[in-house]
Amino acid sequence: MGKDIMNRLVSALLVSSTLLLAQSCSTLGQSGDASVEGDKHHGHHNHNEHGHHHGSHGHGNKPSVKTKAILTTPSKITLDKPNSLVIDIQDSEGNAVPDFEVFQEKIMHLIVVSDDLDFYDHIHPEYKGNGRFEVEANFPKPGDYTLFSDYKPSGNPERVSVVKVKAPGTTSSLSDIEIKNTKVFGNTKVELSFDKPKVQANEEVMISFKLKDAANNKPVNDLQTYLGEAGHLVIVKQSESITASDYIHAHALPGKTTEPIRFATQFPEKGTYKVWGQFKRNGEIVTADFWVNAL
Known about the structure:
By secondary structure, the chain is mainly beta. It is about 5% helix and about 45% strand.
């Protein structure tokens, strides 16, 4: 077995072994270790035996601190209504991590996906101090959800911690996976393209989003920066049990908003992935989702 495959297997085992459930009278607490670490500006996705992301560790003189997220939810999740969540970021000893750096204009980015990858939300918890974040999240249908909390402790690399939420009720059958490279989202037509004929696993690839007005098929001229960049891209691998190893967050390469918005990244393993590109057009967020096969 190759070293990279073994590393990813160990990473997945480490993450899955730390997702703990503890029932109290009114809340459901859950913890997930941070298992992606480092400079992920282009979404590069390599892991070592500790499940950490290779990247720049020269952020100040502070030692790299292992962190975990503790999630507290209502005792019962209400479908399709706001649910109050509390996320506590702690070190390996259970102490609160008090200080964080702003990145992409926020202290924390919380990505919520249903495990069938049909639902996606990108929200920003409010920092209350002493390692505690609060946010309201929506779970539109029954089933399992994976939450990626993306944050940057002061003097340390960016981290991703994974926690899980189960919404009550009977789950419906999985929707069909349709591979299409052109779709319409509201009044915006989005064309997805790659710089290679086929997407190969574990190889650098350039992903481009070309945005046009759905009414006249002309390039849009009202794009604005979103969270400080031309666009954001989240990629999640379809898996029976989604872990941090299945998550990629890439940032747009510099360019004019009148040109296709490009991202350089990798799909680390063969498989089926869901990609969500997010852009801001005339004050509204356009979320463009596509299925991609990596060979």
